TrEMBL record:
<feature type="signal peptide">
    <location>
        <begin position="1"/>
        <end position="28"/>
    </location>
</feature>
<dbReference type="InterPro" id="IPR039426">
    <property type="entry name" value="TonB-dep_rcpt-like"/>
</dbReference>
<dbReference type="InterPro" id="IPR037066">
    <property type="entry name" value="Plug_dom_sf"/>
</dbReference>
<keyword id="KW-1134">Transmembrane beta strand</keyword>
<dbReference type="InterPro" id="IPR012910">
    <property type="entry name" value="Plug_dom"/>
</dbReference>
<dbReference type="Pfam" id="PF07715">
    <property type="entry name" value="Plug"/>
</dbReference>
<keyword id="KW-0813">Transport</keyword>
<dbReference type="GO" id="GO:0009279">
    <property type="term" value="C:cell outer membrane"/>
</dbReference>
<protein>
    <submittedName>
        <fullName>Iron complex outermembrane recepter protein</fullName>
    </submittedName>
</protein>
<dbReference type="InterPro" id="IPR036942">
    <property type="entry name" value="Beta-barrel_TonB_sf"/>
</dbReference>
<keyword id="KW-0472">Membrane</keyword>
<dbReference type="InterPro" id="IPR010104">
    <property type="entry name" value="TonB_rcpt_bac"/>
</dbReference>
<keyword id="KW-0812">Transmembrane</keyword>
<comment type="similarity">
    <text>Belongs to the TonB-dependent receptor family.</text>
</comment>
<feature type="domain" description="TonB-dependent receptor plug">
    <location>
        <begin position="66"/>
        <end position="169"/>
    </location>
</feature>
<keyword id="KW-0998">Cell outer membrane</keyword>
<keyword id="KW-0732">Signal</keyword>
């Protein structure tokens, strides 16, 4: 049945394409405008892009991009050169219909489109696929300074010419094209950054310079943008290890252990974007793009971890029980671990692109595009441990906060007094500290050749076809070591604590004795003992991919009766060749043996987008396409951990393993979209629109972990040991790994409105509302049939509302973004992927601007931005827990940006 659906979609779209191509001239109609008139309109539009600035200018350009597109898209545009509407790209994108953001460390970094996590979307810069610093394909939007972007276009439906498309959507970040401007423009933007959390403040700054100019009678254009950010991000973490049965109390759950941390983070980023555009004549146009970002993130993390039931703790006294949860308990014999961590990240991103366009005549155009995107990430996780002295144990009182979001603690030892603390393996973990050094490198190189044939008459406005070749190579490596005061075989070794007392003021702890973990490591206090384990070997892998995409697309521009009809019909063929290297581990070989494996396959991706203007500026859009998302990079890794399972088969012991799958094929879905859009303008010329959309994605294949039969022949299996009686009789066995499955769908409704309020009453000119709402459901089970966990990134409800005012130089904006509970993906223990259940959240921010008019201060704008006004925490809970017991609580504070921009 699934294969039948795929074939029907392919036949329908390909038949439609052939029907269009054959009688194209029989359905010809005269053009309404000459090429010269079109050119004048395009030039006028480009000029208007420069002149109209501020909130209204941003809204109008976004509306125009949405209205003019053949596909179903969403757009945002900069209010002015060097200034998107928000402090980050992700915050701006998250306001669009059907989109939202997942926050990490208080910042929106991952974009979820239509209920799917960032893994299912592709990000491009000026149409070119980008490398990523993560273990996967999704980019971290913090890498891209919002001040260096001119606009962002999100394709919800693909067309055949869109190479590297995602299953949920494609995000195209765009920088300035200098020849779109008619004069030199320079802009300086400076902001003072204040982050306030509880009673403490930290300060930073952001500075941007943009330069746009034209030379040689507007035949040569240059854009240079420089951006610097030094931004603090303090925060707190209060987390339960989990919940278990309370000894002596049937049916009552209690926290098995907990952790309490304070973060002192800082983000330093320097970015540059440059574009050289050369158009010496009507035959040739060349554009060279350069983008570079260096992002240094430091995280100093201090706190306490301890176990209760899952440790040495003994329940003392009578607990307070609310429902089925122990909300107030006292414990003796608790072994607290004082933690001093340092987790620096150093990211470098460089993207280059050279586009060459050749206009052979009025009908034929050829484009050759060469691009490269490369990232390099160094990521360290450093842990240093200490414990109480003497004795090592203390008492603890654990009380659930009145908010129900976290626990407060009272310990029997003053952790703020350094004399009560010693450097020691307090938790009995087998080391006095731990060191992990990760490196991720990712390189994407692409060559693209396109041809465009334009028609003066006919049903088709143009026919385009071409090919794209992309080569991608991604590697991850991990080196890990135990830190030992003497050696790791000598437990109990300790040293006097060399740190000092600092304010903590969270979770019941007033002061905490702490020391910089980097200073400890550099002082030579620790001996390093390399750690070799199957889990560590699995973090070392490399993936090589070669993708060849061939496409043909017909672009429609005609009339259906008296109604204009635009759109496209096309098909892509994507040929993939993938190979992976990784380490397979066996008993007696924890470091692993290097193995390599891969596969190749092809996919046909038909697509259709139609836009019918059935009334004045009222459109119905329909799209149908087969969409694809390549497997996660870390799922493709070769290598496995193999052992002997004695009770997995009735025939006796067999080999059993777990690992990645280098032969994985992509997620595929047959997608259908229907959208109604009405655009309008007030008498004052302020533009608005309302839209209602429905989408449906029917998955023909998706990926989840399965246990399947596997033959280990050819793998370096260990030989039987002397006297071993459970050695498998053959190489046949089983493996648990990511595998392609079938079935499931995701569907939803999206509503959006942009309303200039003077359309209701003229005196309200300058006031406006933007509102979006989406309702999404899915029957996909990411952990396989019969499971209940939702898709990562899927919130049932997402809404955004923005109220703004702009007039007489003043502009004000207030925004409120909400999303219901969802499952998210983040870095967990060991810096590996972790899936967490995130509580509903409401994020608010505001902006106040004033721009000076004609006079001495013309070109100067002052503004104030406040992000996360309500200090909305980031909280998680246990999935399926009817008592809704809290797991983790992160607090990051409110950020205020005060600054100016000057354009001259």
């Amino acid at each position: 049945m699934v294969e039948l659906k795929k074939n029907l979609l392919s036949v329908a779209l390909l038949t439609a394409l052939s029907m269009v191509a054959a009688p194209v001239y029989a359905q010809a109609a005269d053009q309404d405008k000459t090429d010269a008139e079109k050119k004048k309109e395009e030039e006028a539009k480009a000029l208007d892009t420069v002149v109209v600035t501020g909130i209204r200018g941003s809204i109008e350009r976004s509306i125009e991009a949405k209205q003019d597109a053949d596909s179903i898209v969403e757009a945002i545009s900069a209010e002015d050169i060097g200034k998107l509407p928000d402090s980050s790209i992700a915050e701006s994108i998250a306001r669009l219909p059907g989109l939202t953001a997942q926050r990490e460390r208080g910042r929106a970094t991952q974009i979820n489109i239509r209920g799917l996590s960032g893994d299912f979307a592709t990000t491009t810069l000026n149409g070119r696929e980008q490398a990523s610093t993560s273990d996967n394909r999704g980019v971290e939007f913090d890498q891209y300074p919002s001040e260096l972007m001119s606009s962002v276009l999100i394709y919800k439906t693909p067309d055949a010419s869109l190479v590297g498309q995602g299953l949920s959507g494609t995000v195209d970040l765009r920088t300035i094209r200098p020849l779109d401007y008619s004069e030199r423009v320079m802009n300086v933007n400076a902001r003072y950054d204040i982050n306030k959390i509880r009673d403490q403040k930290e300060h930073g700054n952001r500075v941007t310079f943009s330069y746009v100019d034209q030379f040689m009678d507007n035949r040569l254009g240059l854009m240079v943008g420089l951006s610097h950010m030094d931004s603090p991000q303090p925060g707190y973490q209060n987390e339960a290890w989990g919940y278990t049965d309370l000894p002596g109390y049937s049916g009552v759950q209690v926290m098995g252990g907990g952790k309490l941390y304070r973060f002192d983070n800082n983000h330093k980023r320097n970015g540059i974007a440059a574009t050289l555009q050369f158009k010496p004549n009507d035959f040739y146009e060349g554009t060279l793009d350069v983008f570079h970002s260096k992002f240094e993130k430091t995280e100093i993390k201090t706190g306490v971890e301890f176990g209760t039931v899952w440790g040495s703790g003994t329940l003392s006294g009578t607990p307070t029980i609310t429902g089925s949860t122990a909300t107030n308990t006292s414990w003796t014999g608790v072994l607290p671990v004082i933690r001093m961590d340092s987790n620096p990240i150093d990211d470098k991103l460089t993207s280059l692109g050279w586009n060459n366009k050749f206009h052979f005549n009025e009908q034929w155009t050829m484009t050759l595009d060469l691009s490269s995107s490369k990232v390099d990430r160094d990521f360290r996780v450093l842990e240093a441990y200490a414990g109480v002295y003497p004795g090592g144990t203390t008492t603890a009182n654990v009380v659930l906060d009145g908010s129900g979001d976290f626990n407060n603690y009272v310990f029997g030892t003053d952790f703020g007094n350094p004399s009560n603390i010693r450097l020691v393996d307090a938790g009995g973990w087998g080391q006095d500290g731990y060191l992990k050094d990760f490196n991720i490198s990712d390189s994407v190189k692409a060559l693209r050749l396109d041809f465009l044939r334009e028609f003066d008459e006919g049903f088709l406005d143009s026919l385009e076809f071409g090919a794209n070749f992309t080569s991608r190579s991604k590697e991850k490596s991990s080196r890990e070591a135990k830190l030992c005061i003497v050696d790791c075989a000598t437990p109990g070794a300790s040293l006097a604590f060399p740190g000092s007392s600092q304010a903590f003021n969270f979770g019941g702890i007033g002061n905490l004795a702490t020391v910089d973990a980097n200073d400890l490591l550099n002082s030579g206090v620790y001996n390093l003992s390399g750690n070799y384990h199957a889990d560590i070997a699995a973090k070392n892998w490399g993936i090589d991919e070669d993708l060849t995409t061939i496409y043909v697309q017909g672009n429609i521009d005609t009339d259906l009766g008296q109604m204009p009809l635009r759109g496209n019909l096309g098909v892509q063929y994507v040929r993939a060749k993938q190979n992976s290297e990784g380490y397979s581990t066996f008993a007696g070989n924890p470091g692993g043996t290097l193995v390599s494996k891969g596969t190749s396959y092809g996919n046909v991706l038909p697509s259709m987008n139609l836009s019918l203007e059935f009334a004045s500026e009222a459109y119905v859009r329909f799209a149908a396409a087969r969409q694809m998302a390549r497997p996660r990079m870390d799922q493709l890794k070769a290598g496995m951990d193999v052992g002997i399972c004695n009770d997995c088969s009735s025939s006796g012991p067999i080999w059993s393993g777990g690992g990645g799958n280098p032969t994985l094929k992509p997620w595929l879905a047959n997608a259908y979209d229907l959208s109604f859009e009405k655009y309008f303008s007030s008498k004052a010329g302020n533009k608005g629109y309302v839209s209602l959309a429905y989408f449906y994605k029917d998955l023909s294949t998706y990926i989840y972990n399965q246990t399947v039969s596997f033959d280990y022949a050819g793998y370096p299996l260990p030989a039987p040991t002397t006297g071993q009686t459970n050695y498998p009789a053959s190489t046949s066995g089983r493996i648990t790994q990511p595998t392609n499955g079938e079935g499931g769908n995701i569907r939803g409704y999206e509503f959006a409105a942009q309303l200039p309020l003077d359309i209701l009453w003229a005196p309200l000119s300058g006031l406006g509302l933007q509102a979006t709402y989406s309702d999404t459901d899915s029957s996909i089970h990411p952990n396989g049939p019969g499971t209940t966990e939702p898709l990562p990134g899927l919130s049932k409800y997402v809404s955004n509302i923005t109220a703004y005012y702009e007039r007489h130089g003043f502009s004000l904006r207030y925004s409120r973004r909400t999303r219901s509970a969802f499952r998210g993906e983040t870095k967990g223990f060991g810096a590996d992927l972790q899936v967490i259940d995130i509580k509903p959240e409401v994020v608010q921010d505001a902006q106040v601007n004033y721009s000076f008019g004609p006079g001495v201060l013309e070109g100067l704008s002052l503004y104030l931005q406040v992000s996360n006004i309500g200090d909305e925490p980031f909280g998680t809970y246990n999935s399926g827990d009817a008592a809704n017991r809290p797991v983790s609580f992160f607090e990051y504070g409110r950020t205020t940006l005060l600054g100016f921009s000057y354009k001259f």
